[in-house]
Amino acid sequence: MLPGIMGESVLKTLRKITQVPVLVLTAIQDKQKIVDLLEEGANDYLTKPFDIDELVARVKVQLRQVPAQQSSSTTLTCGLVSVNQDTHEILVAGKRLTLPKKEFELLTILMRHPHQVYQKEQLYETVWGEPYVNGDNTMNVHLSNLRTKINNLSPDAQYVNSIWGIGVRFD
């Protein structure tokens, strides 16, 4: 009952790009439709009207499960890029790529949440563990190097993309 699109379509689209937990809030009372939503990838559901405390508890349950799900797979794959976080092995279009530590860390952060836009300051502070200094070109250099190395092995795709005035994302 979303405006312009069915919730089932949103769920299918989400499942194509991410495994983020999905809790369906629905007015649907038909148990078969609820079963169908769960089988299509919803993690949980709650029917309207609902108690806010129950909603909060269900969200907390889903968030507790996220780290276990992420740690079970050490390989990140997006398009033709695959990164094994344990062995630091990177394959781009089937070709091995070796990166320095900081570029590897940038790549894994971006690939953990493809399509999410990260501010350069946020990435810098996460990877370097220190406050970002405005005007420092370090992040731009590392992102440029990463982009060039990936594009050299897979020239038909652009994976590391700058979003002008906002930040950078992995597509």
The level 1 CATH classification of the largest domain is Mainly Alpha
CATH fold-type name of the largest domain: Arc Repressor Mutant, subunit A
How much strand? 15-25%
Based on Cα principal axes, name the global outline: elongated
Query: How many DSSP helices?
Result: 6
SSE topology string? HEHEHEEEEHHHEE
In terms of per-residue confidence, which ranges show pLDDT below 50 for 5 or more consecutive residues? 68-72
Oligomer: single chain
Number of structural domains: 2
Task: Describe the overall structure.
A hairpin with a 2-residue loop joins strand 3 (75-78) and strand 4 (81-84). The chain has helices at residues 7-17, 31-39, 52-72, 101-112, 120-128, 138-153; strands at 23-26, 44-47, 75-78, 81-84, 89-92, 95-97, 160-163, 167-170. The chain is 46% helix and 18% strand. The chain starts with 6 loop residues before the first helix and ends with a strand. It folds into 2 domains: 7-72, Response regulator (Rossmann fold, 3-Layer(aba) Sandwich); 75-170, Arc Repressor Mutant, subunit A (Orthogonal Bundle). The protein has 6 helices and 8 strands; from the N terminus they run αβαβαββββαααββ. The protein is α+β, with helices and mostly antiparallel strands and 171 residues long. The strands form 3 sheets. The chain has a 4-stranded antiparallel sheet, with helices on one face. Strands 1-2 form a two-stranded parallel sheet. A two-stranded antiparallel ribbon has the order 7-8. Helix 4 (101-112) packs across helix 6 (138-153).
